[in-house]
Design brief:
The complex is a heterodimer of chains A (337) and B (346).
Chain A (H helix, E strand, L loop, with lengths): L1 H23 L6 H11 L12 E7 L6 H16 L2 E7 L3 H13 L4 E5 L3 H13 L4 E5 L12 E4 L2 H14 L4 E6 L5 H13 L3 E6 L5 H14 L5 E4 L2 H14 L4 E5 L3 H9 L2 E6 L2 H18 L9 E2 L3 E3 L4 H9 L4
Parallel strand pairs in A: 1-2, 1-3, 3-4, 4-5, 5-11, 6-7, 6-8, 8-9, 9-10
Antiparallel strand pairs in A: 10-12
Helix pairs in contact in A: 3-11, 4-5, 6-7, 8-9, 10-12
Chain B lengths: L17 H6 L4 H17 L6 H26 L7 H19 L3 H26 L3 H24 L13 H9 L1 E4 L2 E4 L1 H18 L1 H11 L1 H6 L4 H27 L10 H11 L11 H20 L7 H25 L2
Antiparallel strand pairs in B: 1-2
Classes of the chains: A alpha/beta (337), B mainly alpha (346).
């Protein structure tokens, strides 16, 4: 018993010391303070309209802790503040679960619904139920082909095949011969389309590599092994921003000369572009997808306005390289690009 | 559960009080938990108590409850099945791809899928009883192999990671009615999986409490060697239990296929733990020999209420797993406490 007590005391002492050090050792740059200052400088938090407080729910196929969807959510929240809208967000990466979340939103009788259709067939019935209940639906990100069929007002996102082709063309421009396409979400049709699109316009050879996106060390090991086993690979294309950084690490430890390029953007990618570690990025502007979806639902509720004329409203692809990196870095740092 | 206050002389005939009997039930802790969770969301989520919301909650509970029942039986029998989650996806994939590639009537694919899932159950059971290795290891192997095969075969056969549409094929409408139809009562839509779920719970409870096989299951999970010594066919019981998981996976998989028409090959990973969680919340012991099918249903219901209740309460879904974990701990602690109380009072 005495030994246990001593142990507890020792742990207590360490905790107190750690607290003391953290209080004394303030950083004068970066950190939470800098972030708060940036937030205060960003757009204000007051609604710009006097419409009733409508409720809009957004249900996506995002996994837990996904950076991309975090930015979409930020855009949506910003528009919700401006439009005096109560914004609810939920997500699940399993099709059945996502459909059930849509059901739950319909049960709540929300005034507008935003859904991503990464697995369209699974979402069909749930979206139909929302439409039947008279809830205006806007689809975002994936599902441009099904959006209209399912009865959604508009689709806001990027045509994945078009984005893929943009990557293939950019790779040609950079004189690449053999590329690797890293798919981090098995079963996501949009991801398949990206790689297929890139394969289509790319003059060299392109292979697909499936990795488990929820397990970063595994992603790195898989890319590393592939690069080691084939040294003729001169380009690696990742489908999500966080994976670009991992691919760079894999490339370094494999001693490969391949150029790392990526779909999507985040702070690390912007930094990578600036330092030349990354070749280029194809952005689909997630902030815009969230912002526009909420704003368009407001417009529909307020004025019955519909954008796109039955065609998808494209938010990408936007090819960004070293020369755009400086400006983007600022926006990425505050979490809106 | 009828009890009278009468006292008789023979100690074997001594009536235990209703309260004592209740305390001895494995699902008691979970029922208390379920009532608490229900009351909690009724207070904190204003749209929770609507009929349509409750139908959604029941649907969510049923899709995992269908699997939680056989998984609970298996746990009472003293074993695990980590391959249960992906087996559901396998079942849907086999059914869909067989029908499509052979251009066969959809029902043929459904039948082939049943045979295949039962065969995988037999494989798990035979490997386990032959090698005497822990079921954790055996089914971990099956889990990984199935995950790989789901993706590998789907890519090989369909060329993409999801299956082709089969909704325009013969027999689809009938199979859809059986596995994925919607029943409208009043103006509320109930999914047919809820009936499947209740049916399975009833059958499993009958097997456990009223048949010889039920005694065998409890005996296997309690003490395997002792069970064998008194003549319980341990090997057959365990193989049967794994086939039960196969059957559950078949039903859940067919629902997946016929409600969504196409199947994503990469899904199902991680769900096996959710089935186990539902069974454990429902009072199954990790060590086997104790638990109930009704408990697993209550566990599934708690899970369904929590996952959807968070949406109705408009909470940040980022915290969902935290609530789940906390609930699991609380339920297990409550079970443990109740059991100790019940045993001490015997």
């Amino acid at each position: 018993m005495a030994r246990v007590r001593t142990g507890v005391r020792a742990v207590g002492a360490v905790l107190v010391m750690a607290l003391g050090v953290s209080l004394a050792g303030c950083s004068s740059t970066g950190g939470k303070k800098a972030e708060d200052a940036r937030k205060a400088a960003a757009a204000g938090g007051k609604s710009a309209v006097n419409t009733p407080r409508w409720t809009v729910a957004m249900v996506t196929h995002s996994g837990d802790g996904d950076t991309f969807w975090d930015i979409v959510q930020k855009g949506a929240e910003q528009a919700a503040v401006k439009d005096n809208i109560k914004f609810l967000y939920s997500h699940n990466d399993e099709a059945q679960q996502q459909a059930q979340l849509v059901d739950a939103a319909v049960d709540k009788k929300v005034d507008g619904l935003i859904v991503s259709l990464a697995k369209p067939d699974a979402m069909k019935a749930a979206v139909a139920r929302a439409v039947k209940a008279g809830i205006p639906v806007i689809t975002v990100n994936s599902g441009s082909a099904e959006s209209k069929k399912f009865g959604a007002l508009s689709h806001i996102g990027q045509d994945e095949t078009v984005a893929g082709r943009a990557v293939g063309e950019e790779l040609n421009k950079r004189g690449r011969k053999k590329a690797l396409c890293i798919l981090h979400e098995q079963g996501n049709v949009g991801h398949e389309q990206r790689c297929d699109g890139a394969k289509e316009s790319f003059d060299g050879k392109m292979q697909n590599l499936y990795v488990d996106g929820t397990n970063m060390p595994d992603v790195q090991a898989a890319i590393e092994a592939k690069l080691q086993s084939d040294d003729s690979l001169d380009a690696v294309v990742t489908l999500g921003a966080p994976f670009a950084d991992t691919a760079v690490k894999a490339k370094d430890s494999a001693g490969s000369k391949a150029e790392i390029d990526t779909f999507d953007l985040n702070e690390a990618v912007a930094t990578g572009l600036k330092s030349g570690k990354l070749g280029f990025a194809v952005d689909q502007q997630p902030y815009l997808q969230g912002y526009q979806a909420v704003d368009l639902l407001w417009l529909y509720r307020y004025n019955a306005d519909v954008l796109g004329g039955g065609r998808p409203v494209l938010t990408g692809p936007q090819v960004v390289t070293e020369k755009d990196a400086d400006a983007l870095l600022d926006y990425a740092e505050r979490g809106t690009r | 559960m009828t009890a009278t206050a009468q006292k008789t002389a023979d100690e074997r005939l001594v009536e235990t009080s209703a309260l004592r009997k209740l305390l001895g039930r494995p699902e008691l802790g979970s029922v208390v938990g379920a009532v608490a969770v229900f009351a909690f969301f009724v207070v904190f989520a204003d749209s929770f108590l609507r009929a349509s919301s409750l139908a959604t909650v029941l649907y969510a509970a049923s899709t995992l409850g269908i699997m939680a029942v056989p998984v609970a039986l298996l746990m009472i029998g003293g074993e695990f099945d980590l391959s249960a989650g992906v087996l559901v996806t396998s079942s849907a994939l086999i059914s869909s791809m067989f029908s499509y590639q052979m251009t066969a009537n959809v029902w043929v694919g459904v039948g082939v899928s049943l045979l295949a899932t039962l065969a995988i159950g037999v494989f798990n059971g035979v490997m386990l009883t032959r090698t005497q290795l822990p079921s954790f290891i055996i089914t971990l192997g099956t889990f990984l192999m199935l995950t790989g095969m789901n993706l590998g075969f789907t890519k090989l056969i369909s060329g993409t990671v999801s299956t082709k549409k089969i909704s325009d094929m013969e027999g689809f409408a009938g199979a859809h009615d059986l596995f994925a139809s919607t029943l409208t009562l009043g103006d509320v839509d109930f999914k047919v999986t809820i009936l499947w779920w209740f049916g399975l719970v009833a059958v499993a409870t009958w097997i456990l409490l009223r048949t010889r096989a039920g005694n065998w299951i409890f005996a296997c999970g309690g003490n395997k060697e002792a069970a064998r010594a008194v003549g319980v066919p341990v090997t057959a019981t365990k193989i049967g239990l794994y086939m039960g998981v196969g059957l559950g996976a078949w039903i859940a998989g067919q629902h997946l296929l016929f409600s969504f028409d196409t199947v994503q090959s990469g899904e199902g990973v991680g769900n096996e733990l959710i089935y186990i969680i539902a069974a454990v919340i429902g009072g199954c012991l990790i060590t086997g020999g104790y638990g109930s099918a009704v408990g697993s249903a209550v566990g599934a219901l708690i899970f369904g209420m929590t996952s959807k209740g968070i949406v109705y309460a408009e909470w940040d879904p980022d915290w969902f797993k935290f609530f789940l974990g906390a609930m699991l701990l609380l339920a297990t602690l409550l079970n443990h406490w109740v059991r100790k109380r019940a045993e001490a009072s015997k």
